[in-house]
Amino acid sequence: MRVHHPCAAHSPFFPGLLLNEVTMTGFWWHVQEKRQGGQRWGKRAGDAAPCAQIQLGYALVVVILILLLVSYLAADLAMQVRSELRAAHNVKVRLAGRFLALAGIETAVFRKVDKPIDALGTPYEHFVEGYPYEEYRPGRGRFRYYLVNESGKIDLNTFPRGLMELFLAYHGLDEEGIEVVIDSILDWRDPDDLHRLNGAETDYYQALDDPYIPRNGRFQDPAEFFLVRGTAALRNKFDPYEVFTVNNGRSRINFNSLTPQMLAFLTGGDAEKIALYRQMQEEKAGVRLTVADMQTILGPERYETLRPFLVPALKNAFFAVTAVGEAGYEPGDETGVEEAPGVGGDGGEEERERRHWPGVRIQVLYNWRGGAPRFLRWRESFS
């Protein structure tokens, strides 16, 4: 039997012909009667329930879909807000770190030129070249800095072959790799296109995926070292600005003005020798270490190996200052401290969440000729 479904006249969910007429066979519709001047469907007890259930079912589905959409939008908004807050926080931390690093640069320059009065009892009475100093600013963070003379680094234009061999071997190159690097450095410096046995000239560099032309002249910047053939294996093992220079002009190294990376190389990475070097710097209180001190620190065997390349002092007008600023640090902290909402031991208190925040490193090269520092190079990076 084919009848007209009563729900179609009242529900928007049954548009169209196929849903306006429903085929019912032996179901509960069985009588139609006229009462009080209008048409009315007569039904048995419970006949109205199916219509209400159908309409309520569709309404429930729509509500669930809306709730899911709202929940998704709320979660997406929360993630965006959290990401933007974290990005803004990182910018703030790095900006604070940069200003702390700048404070380290200015402090090092001040201590180099300042001649304090002993009666003041300041900690700046003796400023030691190469010694890593650390200072804190309450509620701001800390900065670390040191100042070295360029004579305490390996000059890429004047180094003796034996010294470079020791340095490359310390950083893990084998004999063949050492020969390739040294010959390639010499080819980089000479003005011709005739390469040495293990060297490289223009034809080699032009055949690379990213070709370039060698300088065929003196090194102008320590970072050029990593453009030379064979140096790719040394990347990320050391900072070229901390171990190389183009301003030494001599073949020897000033033992009294070493960067941390140069000190590690000369001592073979021996922590006890490094600590002894720092201890003797403090005890000397500004007085230069002597040849006897060098022997004591390095030991007889290491000293004999390095003796042709070391000297207690060299006169040089070029100084390099390195400073690292780190926001959120307090005395005794190994990691940064960030205030973060949380539940403390007694509930509702703010806990201090410790994180490692990258610092900002600034490296400046000064020419101190004439008594007034004039900077020649400025580099910033994240430590």
Keywords:
383 residues, alpha+beta, Ribonucleotide Reductase Protein R1, domain 1, five-stranded antiparallel beta sheet
What do these coordinates show?
There is one protein chain. The chain is α+β, with helices and mostly antiparallel strands. It folds into three domains: about 30 residues, no CATH class; about 200 residues, no CATH class; about 60 residues, EpsJ-like (Ribonucleotide Reductase Protein R1, domain 1, Orthogonal Bundle), CATH 1.10.40. It is about 35% helix and about 20% strand. It has ten helices and 15 strands. Strands 5-6-11-14-15 form a five-stranded antiparallel β-sheet. The protein has a two-stranded antiparallel sheet with strand order 1-2. The protein has a two-stranded antiparallel sheet with strand order 3-4. Strand 14 and strand 15 form a beta hairpin. Helix 3 crosses helix 4 and helix 9 crosses helix 10. The radius of gyration is 38 Å and the shape is extended. The N terminus is likely disordered.
